[in-house]
Design brief:
The complex is a heterodimer. Chain A contains 24 helices and twelve strands. By secondary structure, chain A is of the alpha/beta class. The chains are: A alpha/beta, B alpha/beta. Chains A and B meet through strand 4, helix 4, helix 5 and helix 8 of A and strand 14, strand 15, strand 16, helix 20 and strand 36 of B.
Amino acid sequence: MLEVRINELAEEFGVHRNTIRNWIKAGILPAQKGPGRRYLLKWADYVALCERFGKRPRRLPETAKEEESKKSPYRLLPPSTPLYPDPSWADICLTCGACASACPISGVDGLDPRKVVRMAALGMDEELINSDWAWKCSLCAKCEESCPMKVEIVQLICRIRSLRPRDKIPGPLVRGITTCLEKGNNLGIPKEDFLALLKYLARELAEECPGFEVPIDVHGARLLVTINSKEPFAEPESLKYWWKIFYAVKESWTISSEYWEGVNWGFFSGNEEAMRAIVGRLVDNLHRLNCEALLLPESGHAYLATRLVLEQWFPEALNKFKIYSVFDLLMEYLNKGLLVLDAKRHPGLTTYHDSCNYGRRSLKILGRGYFEEGRIITQLCCPDFVDMQPNRNGNYCCGAGGGAWSSPYKAERIFHGRIKARQIKETQAKRVIVTCHQCRDQIKFFLNKEYELGVEVKYLWELVADSLVFDPS
Amino acid sequence: MECGRHFNIEILTRTELLDIQGRPGNFRVSLRRYPRYVDIKRCIACGACADKCPQVVPETTKNLGSRKAIYLEHPQAVPLKYQIDPLSCLKLTENSCGLCEELCPTQAINFEEREEVLEYEVGAVILAPGLKPFDPSRVGLWGWQSPDVLTALEFEYLLAQSTRTNTPLRRPSTGNPVKNIAFLQCVGSRDLNHCDHPYCSTVCCMFAIKEALLARQRNARLEISIFYTDMRAYGKDFERYYQEASEKKGIRFVRSRLHAVEFCPQRKKLRLHYVNIEGRQVEEWYDMVVLAVGLEVPPDIIELAHRLGLRLTANNFAATSAFKPVDTSKPGIFVCGAFSGPKDIAQAVTEGSAAAAAVAEILAPVRPARQVSQNQLPQTIQGDQKPRIGVFLCHCGNNISSVIDLEALLTYAQGLADVVWAEKHLFLCSQEAQKRLQEVIRDKGLNRVVIGACSPRTHEFLFRRALREAGINQYLLEMANLRHHVAWVHPQFKEETTQKAKDLIAMAVAKVRCQEVLYPLEVPVMKRALVLGGGVAGMECALSLARQGFEVFLVEKSASLGGNARHLSYTWTYENVQYHLLKLRKEVEKNPLIKIFLRAEVVKVAGHIGEFATTISSHGRRKTIRHAVGIIAIGGGMYRPFGEYGYGEYEEVFTSLEFDTVRAAGDFRVKRARNFVFIQCVGSREPGRLYCSKVCCTHSIQTAIDLKKEDPSRRVYILYRDIRTYGEREILYQKARKLGVVFINYDLHGTPKVSKSSRGLCIEVWDHILHRPLEINTDVLVLATAIVPNPKVRELASLYSLAVDSHGFFLEAHSKMRPVDFLTDGLFMAGLSHYPMPLEESVAQAKAAAARAATILAKDTVSLDPVVATVDLARCDGCALCLDVCPYKAISPLEIEEGDSRVKKIQIDKVRCKGCGICQAICPQECIAVANFTLTQLRAQIRAALSGEL
């Protein structure tokens, strides 16, 4: 038996004391309460925990020698059809370890980006496809950013995900996609409930913004706005932030009564058909309602996935309609002088979290990343600003991207977020501005609590809505 | 320094090349000279200007501090002259100040100087523009913005500062002593993502180890980790240096490439987060991080190359051929140094000499006419008269006079015995003072001179010239170094320094009084060279000398010319070796100045530089060749690993060269094969052979690329320890990976195991990333075996008294500055008998050896320093203690008849002797003396020092 203190273990794993307590509570770390705030655990359980989170056991009993000699050799017989189409996905790897060094979940389940690439190069396809690691990965591309050989690690992981038998994909993801395809949104909210909710919310908002009405299926509106089903389901109030902005700038906009979901989980499971179907519906809506532009205000992946699908399968729609990211639209309003923001309403040190999909990945895939826009807008509302280190292209993921939010690997997700939590702590900021739903929920509801950050977490548009100076009359 | 005072070299600083017109032998080059605003003929580098210059300019490199608007580029600058930075000088920017002009004691400042275009007529051009370090500020993640993250160069400045001031290494951010340092390798090299540099910068691994060891010397408790991808210790003695650093000197080497350096504001330290080789996460904290930045071609040099129409490689290095490593694509324009690919000092120096040889080849016809040599003046006044000593003191601006009371010193000097004249000057090195010096010597009838100024290292040649020109023997001179040994080292003790200066002058006077007249040893030069070894190195060397017009004897042991190159099909840049070899052989055979001896071996050697007599035995007959210089290029061999990895046991196991042969012959074992395994470092980097064979990684990778290109469905595995594809060879490594060659590192988990079963050969090796055993069934196993020295190296070494290193390769005079010279004058080396190397480096060495040899052959006599040892045979008792200590093997035993008995004595070869004085120190009979450092002279000096009076 091994006698440990909670804080010792927390330091060893780079997580918070709460995380260790939660691990004990959840049975991830079977431990008994010992004398004087100590816990007793079995050596084997300690070693297993190290294995699970990629740490080298700091102490090892004499008996726990590695069983190296017992490993039987793997016969190298690369499959006739390779897992990947191009050497730049794996073969070109220098095995230098930069990717694994950059990855916050290196070593989890004994894998890391370098090992994944290596296994792919050596033809260990089956093992890779069966491993859960690819699903614990948040596709944040921090590994790619550091790779000197530009190995397409994220594409490789997406390919590995796509090859998993469909019945073995993490449940919530499958359910989300199926529901979305069948019922039009990930959570299966019926049309009547949805419309009723919107009307109710609009009435509420009208008290603050006289004359406000929610424009549903308005033909000829300029802007079609999609919605993340999580919002009407769990946080309807948060819909009002955008509405208030639209009201202030007198935008001509609309919401479709059907297929209003912009979230696209096919992107996470490597389900191209689903991706295409979901985006196809948005394109139909644009045509049907005769809109000029589309705004995707959900998470970073929704914007990226939609753009990608449009580029690949609907190039004519991409030509015809303008696709707005949240940054594009807010910057447009600002540049036109439509937004007047009060810099005094949000005192206190504020920091900004770069979403991997809006930043690093958009830069790589679409050739344009959003780094400065968010900072400009944030600093207009919160002049007392500090950047996290590293930031922009080098930023760490919150831990919830790439479908990790919806997957059942919560312990790993929290573990992943320890670096984000540390980054936030090191800035000593009191407020974090985010631009993606996953980032926001992960930081606000999980990292905040687990790592005792005590920070206020706001969407960028929530910050704008709360800083708006407008005359309701 | 040597360059600066050479009669045939004119140095143009602050000058750039604009254009070259014409053809080889007759070029017209236009140069743009930027104004220095300081007349270099007048400037005596006293520093008065910089002292008072009000304009402080911070250096852009960290830890270099700041300079003034008028400054010395660096303390060792040649010429040692000040210059004005026109961008920060107040006079030049705002037309104010001008203080330096008023202060300059020699009126050297000239604000009227303007940019000018110069035109020169030259026969050939050598480009040696070098490279610049990669700028890491381009990538934020490497953390250079933090003051504690330094480039390797910046770290060197910090180290130098700490050494100079004898203070501990301190963190620039906090000023606290540094406890641990991390070096990150491959910053700006082998990287397509953060910069477009697919190549390896070649030198960073070694400079990182060097800096780490230097830092440990400053502080033995400093913890240093070097994070690397492949440790590229491929050069001569590099591997041992690396192994010692790792095993004995406590430097920690971690095989992991780091993605970022993060500064933690709370801890005020640098966080490195990485996975170790086992794939586990590690977080470490460092006080300082050094980025081992790579090299790149500066943009203005790329532009110049385009302007001149030179062909460049994909990475903007000058394109050269392996057979003409210093020729650019334009005839008559040559290149040396890192511009043709990153390289270390030894290789750059070698190429420098090689380029000189290439130029000498085309300029051979005009060489005698255009060469300027030192003119010899008759020396009328001799030293054996009664000493009449003159003492000349120098203020050196106020360098010396501000610390030493020169008036008192002058009076003191005038009072010393035999001193008939003493005077002082503001600057003794100025032209006026030099003239005055000669007049005084003549007018006052001086026959000995003491100079109280600066270091003989920099100025002795100048004063010797003045003596010569005044007509007295140049060795009747003694310098007292008042600047470096007195004024600069303890300026705070004014009185004591004056006393010390007095002592130094008294010592110099005491010594010069018994100084003797010496004449340079003139050794006649036979205008012939001997080249041993008819491989590529030997042939290239012979050909280069012949093209320069010298007669060459080329001696080859085997029946034909060609050497090891006969087994190679192409170079790493895919040039056909056999084609070039044939051409080279024909050219050598055709050249009337080259006499070839095949099946010949050296049996006896006598003589010395200028006149060696080497006896060779050829076809049973003996022949003695007389020659001025010798070049030894006897090549190397291949290690045969019997008993290792089933070599000699299974027919599917080959060495690299054997495999090339069977493959070229279309052997069925290769044709039929689907799986190929290469094992690297067989016989290299092992105890007993602790060196890297340098060429095997590239060779195996090239073979692997060929195999894959022929049939992409083949499986090729290369099992290695470190891939050492230095320079642009790295691109081959990349290409091989792209083609699907699998690289497995066996350094971590031990050597591969080879067994044979019904399925064929089976290799078991652990994967370095997955940490599990892999089993590879293969049809062919190729062993990349070591290059071993030619066994004849030791034989020749004893015949010519040459030094050999512990592995059996020849030892050069200085690993960096004299890479192809032997310590014995007149002998040079090239090729594999020096160290394993690829073809182009062999050719470069051969040409370099030819250039070095030609510096002797071009003269009728070699004049050697007469400061050498002589023996008084009357007192020598033949104890021979001196024999063993002589580092130059200049002393040999001698038997002479004394009456009717034969007695043992020793003799000293004046040509070999370098005057180091070890024999003089050890001789119990005190019968050996080094000229002008005799015991009488030294005792007189010591007496003067101890008495303070004579």
